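Justification of computing resources. Each target in the renewal requires a structure prediction run like the one illustrated here; the chain below, 128 residues long, is used simply to show the kind of job we budget for.
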Amino acid sequence: MFVLPFVMMMFVELGMSFLSVFDGVWSLPGTPNYRDLLQAAKSQMGVPRLDEEFIGQLTMWYSVLFMTDVLLKVYALQVSMRYFYMLKAERTTAVNVDTGNTVTVKLPSYADALKMKAEDTPPTYQEP
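Resulting structure tokens:
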């Protein structure tokens, strides 16, 4: 019951992550984008402009961490989908399982049923 909304949220979050690759405006709230990372690095170092080597290293680390984040989201989505289908299969088998409260009646064979008269009563119920 609660897995399906979580799976839908994971789809939306993964879609927003892929959209943030193309434009920083689409990033999720609370998730730092590349521009925020550069601003934080400039303010941390106290310089107005960063050198090219540092920007290259920062870009590499940001790309690696971003792709790791996306892969973790895909893995979480895959696990939650597997869990959803497992719960769905378990629920359908629980409906089909014999609960043990059924009544069994020994019915006559086809030949015996043909020999019975129409006004005969059906066989009585006997506990097995």
